Automatic annotation (TrEMBL):
Domain Fido: 1-143
Species, as recorded: Candidatus Protofrankia californiensis
Record-listed ATP binding positions: 80-87
Name of the featured protein: Filamentation induced by cAMP protein fic
Pfam families documented for this protein: Fic (PF02661)
Length: 261
């Protein structure tokens, strides 16, 4: 953790803080929303945390990782960067067990969604204005597990939607006599809004001439529309792009809260 703490000129890294630290209220900087433990007890608290991290008490990995995050951010051992390091520790604990996909090892993407960051700080604020290691933290655990669950829902939803779009495009290609390989280009357009010749060429293992010919034919058929010139050119949906595929791709998914019926 000390090595991972980023060095800054103004605030030394790689060492515990030497003085008090406060988290001020966003609405009034003169009010301390949280006061961290005194600097002289930080080394002992960190040793206790490290001993706990190195011991296996049978608690589920996601719960342990969430608690490690909360313990570290509550101790606030550095003058700056405590939130970043606490989230990094949470991710590291999960990644060390072989879960490397960001969607399942980190809650950063989930926190980036509108409203979730506010809920994150509210959860931390609900822990109280001072360090209280023995308090009820069930809502904090629920918050983190909800984040992981909804990130998993998002991944599953994207895969399901991608498959349904591919199916609709395959039916379109078959009904119009298009080569099945062009579905790759059409799928990019439906899901990402555009496709480039180079991406299509590499995805299907085509020659430059083959990829150009396919995209030119799709443009002539008004399935695609070219935007830009030469190397900067990309293709978007044209007037005759299959509407059902676009409707599927553009329908927002619904995320459920695993703790509500």
């Amino acid at each position: 953790m000390l090595q991972g703490h980023r060095r800054t000129v103004r605030k030394p890294a790689g060492q515990w803080r030497r003085g008090p630290v406060y988290v001020t209220d966003a609405r009034d900087p003169s009010i301390a929303a949280y006061t961290a433990p005194d600097a002289d007890v930080v080394p002992a608290l960190m040793k206790e945390l490290i001993d706990w991290l190195n011991a296996d008490n049978g608690t589920h990995l996601l719960v342990r990782a969430a608690m490690a995050h909360l313990h570290l951010v509550s101790i606030h051992p550095w003058a700056d960067g405590n939130g970043r390091m606490s989230r990094s520790l949470q991710t590291l604990m999960i990644a060390r067990e072989g879960v490397l996909a960001p969607e399942f090892s980190s809650i950063e993407a989930w926190l980036g969604r509108p409203g979730n960051t506010w809920e994150y700080y509210r959860e931390l604020a609900d822990r109280g204005p001072k360090y209280l290691p023995d308090q009820d933290v069930s809502s904090w655990i629920r918050f983190n597990l909800t984040a992981y669950h909804q990130q998993a829902q998002t991944v599953q939803g994207r895969l399901d939607r991608s498959g349904r779009v591919w199916g609709a495009l395959s039916e379109f290609a078959e009904s119009t006599g298009l080569d099945e390989r062009v579905v790759t280009a059409l799928h990019d357009v439906a899901m990402a809004g555009r496709v480039r010749r180079s991406r299509y060429e590499h995805a299907e293992g085509l020659s430059l001439q083959q990829a150009q010919r396919d995209l030119r034919d799709l443009t002539t058929a008004q399935v695609l529309e070219p935007v830009g010139r030469t190397r900067a050119r990309y293709y978007t949906a044209g007037p005759r792009f299959p509407r059902p595929a676009l409707d599927i791709a553009r329908t927002p998914m619904i995320l459920r809260n695993p703790y509500t019926s």
